[in-house]
Design brief:
The protein is an alpha/beta fold. It contains 13 helices and 7 strands. The chain has helices spanning 41-52, 70-77, 101-114, 125-157, 170-177, 184-214, 221-227, 235-245, 254-260, 285-295, 306-313, 317-339, 344-367, and strands at 6-12, 17-24, 31-38, 57-63, 81-85, 265-267, 276-279. The longest helix has 33 residues, at 125-157. The chain is globular, with a radius of gyration of 26 Å. Mean pLDDT is 93; it is low at 370-374.
Length: 374
């Protein structure tokens, strides 16, 4: 083995052990399986230093997954390049029906050498902490929805139906408090369910407050302020979006961001036949969901309420212009698509795609050197 060679190393990571394979540089370089090592910092450091003593240049990779980015940071700290790979974009042979740790590690090493792998954005430790915080809030919101549904399901079984327009308002809570349930056992279950809903609401409120407290010291706080000028985005939703996506400057164009979010149509065309269907749904599903939720607000005419006006004024002038242009265009777009008979969900998805383009434009305007506020 040459002391001045280049090599590509693939890790198939797991909770306890990593399977490791190496591909020598060059089209005909040897590819071999090195074995498995313990998933510890000491074992990884020992392997990396051993390989570094035999090769002039090393490049590592592994799939993004539940093991996180600790392996990436460790290898980078040892002075070597490491790529965290998007699992859904790894090329796979259609006829391959055998999957093992050894095969996965060998495939990663060969594909890394061929340049066929797509990297994901690796956040710094503070950004990852913000991402964990917003995901904890998402889990709390899902838990709250589940507990509310349990209450409504119990009432439905008991033949108790609320006649108001919206549930979980103050009027609805008053109605719940006045319900008379005959059997003691069901009454206890009902009261416990209501208490669980209250506790879930308090949990969501605490996490919202934690997000508000963390944003000012975050590296993307200025971008959060800029995005809040757009209709449908407040501090929490803007923070969730940026925590999932990261720095928007890594996207060269708005079209790149749309594709990353999976908001572009899928296509299966061949020869003279062109077939396009629903959106690809690639990329980050959480960011796409929050964007579609925010897009529902553009069904209303363009306007600035008192609370929104304060957020708009806090943004640079260039951002304010983009935000107002977004309101005017997306509202008109929503109405035009609705008049053509498109389903509301299809219309909102189209609005979300264009909104992602305005978000990209806002981030560019916010980072411009000449950006000034009123």
């Amino acid at each position: 083995m040459s002391d001045h060679s280049e090599a590509f190393v693939g890790f198939d990571t797991s909770k306890l052990r990593h399977a490791v394979a190496i591909a020598e540089g060059g089209r005909t370089g040897e590819v071999r399986f090195l074995g498995e090592i313990e998933n510890t910092e000491a074992a990884t450091t020992k392997l990396v230093k051993k390989l570094a003593s035999r090769h002039r240049r090393l490049t590592f990779c592994y799939e993004a997954g539940p093991t996180g980015y600790g392996l990436h940071r460790l290898i980078e700290s040892l002075g070597h390049a490491c790529m965290v790979v998007a699992p859904s974009l790894i090329p796979k042979k259609p006829g391959e029906r055998v999957k093992t740790n050894r095969r996965d590690a060998l495939a990663l090493a060969k594909l890394l050498r061929a340049g066929e792998l797509t990297a994901v954005g690796v956040p710094d430790e503070r950004h990852e902490a913000m991402r964990d915080l917003v995901r904890a809030r998402e889990a709390a919101v899902d838990d709250l929805k589940s507990k509310r549904q349990q209450v409504l399901s119990l009432l439905l079984r008991l033949g108790l139906r609320y006649d108001g327009k919206r549930t979980w308002t103050r009027l609805h809570w008053n109605w719940l408090a006045n319900q008379k349930i005959a059997h003691r056992e069901q009454r206890i279950a009902f009261e416990e369910m209501l208490q669980a809903v209250r506790e879930a609401q308090e949990r969501v409120a605490r996490l919202d407050q934690a997000i508000r407290a963390a944003v000012p010291d975050w590296s993307l706080s200025e971008t959060v302020t800029a995005l809040m000028a757009l209709r449908g985005l407040d501090l929490v939703s803007a923070t969730i979006f940026l925590a999932e996506i990261g720095d928007l400057s890594r996207f060269a164009s708005a079209r790149d961001l749309m594709g990353y979010l999976g908001l572009v149509p899928s296509e299966h065309s061949t020869g003279d036949r062109i077939k396009r269907s629903g959106i690809t749904k690639a990329g980050n599903a959480r960011a796409r969901r929050i964007l579609i939720e925010c897009s529902w607000s553009y069904r209303h005419p363009p306007r600035l309420g008192k609370e929104k006006l304060a957020r708009v004024v806090a943004a640079p002038k260039a951002v304010q212009e983009v935000a107002w242009k977004a309101q005017a265009r997306l509202c008109a777009r929503y109405r035009a698509l609705t008049r053509r008979g498109k389903r509301p969900t299809v219309v909102v998805t189209a609005i979300a795609r264009e909104l992602s383009g305005f978000i990209w434009a806002v981030s560019r305007a916010a980072s411009a050197p000449a950006a000034q506020t009123f």
